Amino acid sequence: MPAVSSRRPGRPRLLARALPLAPAVVLLLLFLAGPIAYCAYIAFTDLQLTGQAHSSFVGFENFRAAFKDEAFLNAVWLTLVFTVLSSLVGQNTLGLALAALMQRASKPVRTLVGGIVITAWVLPEVVAGFLLYAFFRREGTLNAILDWLHLPTQNWLFTLPILAVSFANVWRGTAFSMLVYSAALNEIPKEITEAAEVDGAGGWRRMWHITLPMIRRSIGTNLMLNTLQTLSVFGLIWVMTRGGPGNRSQTLPLFMYEQAFQKSMIGYGTAVALLLLVVGALFSVVYMRLLRTEV
Amino acid sequence: MALLTGATLRSRRVGRRLAADAGLLFVAAAFVLPLAWVVLSSLDAHADLRVRVPDGLTLDNFDAVLKPDITFTPLLNSLVLCGGGTALTVVCAALAAYPLSRFRSRLNRPFLLTILFATCLPITAIMVPVYALFVRVNLIDTVQGTIFFFAASQLPFAIWLMKNFMDGVPRELEEAAWTDGASSLQSLVRIVLPLMGPGVAVVTVFSFVMMWGNFFVPFMLLLTPDQMPASVSINDFFGNRGTVVYGQLAAFSVIYSTPVILLYVLVARRLGGGFALGGAVKG
């Protein structure tokens, strides 16, 4: 049987094989690699939107300015809080808890809960923002419930804006972790958990000593993807608080937008964007290490 | 003795199922509140910001927003942008995935690693340079420019998914066609793509849903109000139109969200509950 793949590819064959890649490569180079390269360039200039004919090269000035800028440091801190609270703690833990409970729950409950959580995920970003804006507003649902329970109410978007947007991100993003963990838990052979159960291991011990070690790769990839997703959230926060009040929910993407467009400092805004890209790239590399056997 | 253990295990299992059900329903109740607000308010003539059952159901809110400038134009704009972007993404991804899946080459691994790397980059970060670049090359405020960018931003993930799905189609089926003299393109279109129908559907729906909900890209790249998709025009309910009519905002949100939810349900059903996507992402 002549194996087709063993035919030696001549020049025309090589071209025929590379050609289908061309449209994708051109798009990626022009609209993704291009802007990234351009980003790396203008981050080192003093490019502004208005009042200046030419921009000049300023070296690391934008970065030096950033690390002296309290508003920037505030954005870095808030991004950290937002990411840790909503992605590492919230989405990840709640997603795992939901997936674990779903393994034991009855089918109708599983379907219903899965449907609700996934709907929150599929909703457009801006709509999700409005729904949670309504939920957290002073006249909103959360305060109505607290009032009903005779608990103190407050203006959440004013007093604890970063907490409110973090909760919003948990609401919106947990479905992804739930799906990843459900898939991972389904792959664990029933015999293993059943054997441990007969040996008398309780639920928590089984989770800690058997389940978690077996799904550790899924945990790694899920954490990585959640974090990257959360790092670039813009619309959700924009709709709920515009980064305010003041700059108390202004994460890096919103800070970048404000500097570049409301203050017209494209060079400075891009320097911030470049830092965000670098952080994302570092996470990407770790993620690829986790997956390294796959390609 | 063994019987006894079996019985205790079984009764313990029933107890656990009830506990799991209760826990899940509690979380679901918290998740459902914001969703209930949008549905109930859209049917309420006096909607405000809290969840409550309306005194009487009315479709007035829908009547009020179902007008060309409020709903139809933005949705049509969304459809053009996301439809165009998705078509471009799926065609380019299918073409690119084919040689990556079918032929061995030293370039495959570096290419796929680059793609995987790009999949993870925070696209939000490059919107400022993209804006600056689009101003330079006169693509700012153009539908085609936005479509190109949408496609490029979705392509890495689409290629990655498409390649994984394509690997699942056995080579043997094509080899017969090749010996009959079919070209690669012919075997891709006639044999591989039809066999991986659900995979193509997943990539298509996923790309479309991502673009449909995306706010930042059109917000940055489009300027003319007439060209704005629904993700941006929804902002008009605040500010420009004076006081916010929450019932109408809710009605618009329902209209705008329904297509993507239906699309998701359609694909999830065919693939047994959306878990395929989770699995595909996992690697």
UniProtKB/TrEMBL annotation, chain B:
Membrane topology (UniProt): Multi-pass membrane protein
Listed GO CC annotations: plasma membrane
Origin superkingdom: Bacteria
The ABC transmembrane type-1 domain, residue ranges: 75-267
BP GO annotations: transmembrane transport
InterPro entries linked to this entry: BP-dep_ABC_trans_perm (IPR050901), MetI-like (IPR000515), MetI-like_sf (IPR035906)
Keyword Protein biosynthesis: no
Keywords on record: Cell membrane, Membrane, Transmembrane, Transmembrane helix, Transport
CDD domains: TM_PBP2
Spans through the membrane: 18-40, 75-98, 110-134, 146-162, 200-223, 243-267
Keyword Transmembrane helix (UniProt): yes
Record's subcellular location: Cell membrane
PROSITE patterns: ABC_TM1 (PS50928)
One Pfam family of this chain: BPD_transp_1
Family stated for the protein in its record: Belongs to the binding-protein-dependent transport system permease family.
Name the record gives this protein: ABC transporter permease subunit
Origin species: Streptomyces fagopyri
